[in-house]
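Ticket 4471: requesting a sanity check on a complex prediction with flavin mononucleotide. Repro inputs:
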Amino acid sequence: MDKITVAVLVGTARELRLSIFAAKYIAEYGKKLPNTEVILVDPQEFNFPLDGNDLEYKDPRYTEITRRADAFFIIIPEYNHSFSGSLKRMLDSEFDTYNHKPVALAGVSNGGWGGTRAVESMVPVVRELGMVAISFDVYFPRIQEIFDNSGKIRPDLKKHYDQSIGSLYSELIWFAKILKANRSSN
Ligand SMILES: Cc1cc2nc3c(=O)[nH]c(=O)nc-3n(C[C@H](O)[C@H](O)[C@H](O)COP(=O)(O)O)c2cc1C
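Returned structure tokens:
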């Protein structure tokens, strides 16, 4: 079976972002899975001027990653009950390259809701982009209490997060294999 490529999207370009710890943890988890390639996609490293998806407003490196990806895992910090502008800007820059690919969502907040409202507001977006959203998510409420300043997960929470993230990858890869096989036969 071919390798499955998962693009893990960091959901903000904010300088002091804490959700980067969740994104890196999820990316590192995926790298240990068999036959799985993980690409961590950080909006800080891409160039998206203005708005839209016309050629001059795309970043060709992001175009190529979305083309190559068989699945997406989006880490979404909650900003004013929704997702960040930079995440939406990055997503908006492409369209066809997301089609018929599965997506898992992770919510992050520094309060107790864990980014649930941000994740819920992302569902119609990924649906419009032609992606298949996994029916469950993972949440990081009070992110500042989950990871230390170096990004190390709290030992007593590791098992819980490994189980949740593992279940999500398992579902994501199940969909990715089926959709990939059928995309290539079209
Ligand atoms: C502009 C802005 C708006 C925010 N709005 C919310 C919010 O509506 N609800 C919430 O729980 N946390 C909110 N937060 C806190 C973030 O969830 C918190 O910073 C968390 O660490 C994830 O974001 P980060 O990766 O930027 O750190 C907001 C943060 C910013 C910067």
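Notes from triage: Residues 155-185 form the longest helix (31 residues). Leaving this open until the requester confirms.
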